[in-house]
Amino acid sequence: MRRIRLFFKISRFIPFVISFFRSREIALRKKIAYLLLFIGYFFIPFDAIPDWLAVIGMLDDVAVLMLILKSMIKTAPNTLKHKYGI
């Protein structure tokens, strides 16, 4: 249920992600790790469920994106979480 709510609040995460990468409170190693995760997510062509299966095929892509965002939220400083109401 939490992942479903997270999915519907996706528009709020764009400024959060930008602030996450601009924040001086977060170690450069973590920023690079998350950047590599995002790049890998978009450029590695492997899917558990092929995208040509319409909606079902995109579910694994959304799940991976939500897992990355959830992990970013956990590692973000409290000031950043409160700023965006997360």
Descriptive overview:
Its main location: membrane. Residues 32-67 form the DUF1232 domain. The chain crosses the membrane at residues 32-49. There is one protein chain. The protein is mainly α and 86 residues long. The protein has one domain. It contains 5 helices and no strands. The model has no long low-confidence stretch (mean pLDDT 82).
Q: Helix and strand layout, with pairings?
A:
Blueprint: H1 2-8, H2 13-22, H3 28-43, H4 54-75, H5 78-83
Helix pairs in contact: 3-4
Main location: membrane
InterPro entries: DUF1232 (IPR010652)
Membrane topology: Multi-pass membrane protein
Q: What would the keywords be for this entry?
A:
86 residues; mainly alpha; transmembrane helix; DUF1232; transmembrane; DUF1232 domain-containing protein
What is the succession of H and E elements?
A: HHHHH
Largest sheet: none
Number of helices: 5
DSSP E strands, number: 0
**Overall mean pLDDT:** 82
Structural class: mainly alpha
Coarse shape:
globular
Radius of gyration: 14 Å
What is the structure about, briefly put?
The chain has helices at residues 2-8, 13-22, 28-43, 54-75, 78-83. By secondary structure, the protein is mostly helical. It has one domain (2-83).
